[in-house]
Amino acid sequence: MIEILSSLEPRHEKRGVIFKELDEFTEIIFINKGIVSVGFELNNQRFESLKAKKIVIADHGCTFNHNCHFSYKAVTILEGYAIRKSQWIRILSKYPVIGN
After folding, report:
1. Among 48, 15, 50, 8, which residue's Cα sits nearest to residue 29?
2. Is-contact 89 28, C-beta < 8 A?
3. What is the pLDDT of residues 14-29, one digit of tens each?
4. Distance from C-alpha of 77 to C-alpha of 40, rounded to nearest angstrom
5. Would strands 55-57 and 45-52 be described as parallel, antiparallel, or unpaired?
6. What is the DSSP string of 37-95?
7. pLDDT tens sequence across 3-17
8. 3-state secondary structure of 26
9. Residue 24, CB-side half-sphere exposure with 13 Å CA sphere
């Protein structure tokens, strides 16, 4: 647990798109303040289906090496923490119980 906490980096995001559909996840983002809109695109039109205040983005994608299936957009200025995918994979290989 200490290794995960020491790998976290402060993260601030301006309003706008964080991840688009089919993007590769490069980090796991833990949002503490702000509002994130989760949605999808169909025929070049964006549909927002969920708004969340405290959310973890890309945890499943980084763990299992999947691309983004939804689009994530910052509705307000976001504050939180992030851990890079390379650090996360290194921690998972060292402590496989976390991935279970």
Report:
1. 8
2. no
3. 998 888 888 888 999 9
4. 21
5. unpaired
6. EEEEEETTEEEEEEEESSEEESHHHHHHTPBPSSEEEESS-EEEEEEEHHHHHHHHHH-
7. 888 889 999 989 988
8. coil
9. 5
Tokens describing residue 27: 């980090």
- In the structure encoding, which two tokens stand for residue 81, read together? 């923490």
Which pLDDT does position 90 carry in this prediction?
92
| Lookup result for tokens 């688009």 | 20
Instruction: Please give the Cα distance from 35 to 18 (Å, whole number).
Output: 12
Residue with tokens 């964006």: 46
The identity of residue 91, as a single letter, is I
pLDDT digits (tens, 9 = 90+) for 49-97: 889 889 999 888 888 888 888 889 999 999 999 999 999 999 988 888 8
Round to whole Å and give the CA distance between 6 and 86: 14
- The C-alpha atoms of residue 34 and residue 27 are separated, in whole angstroms, by 18
Tokens of 66: 């999947």
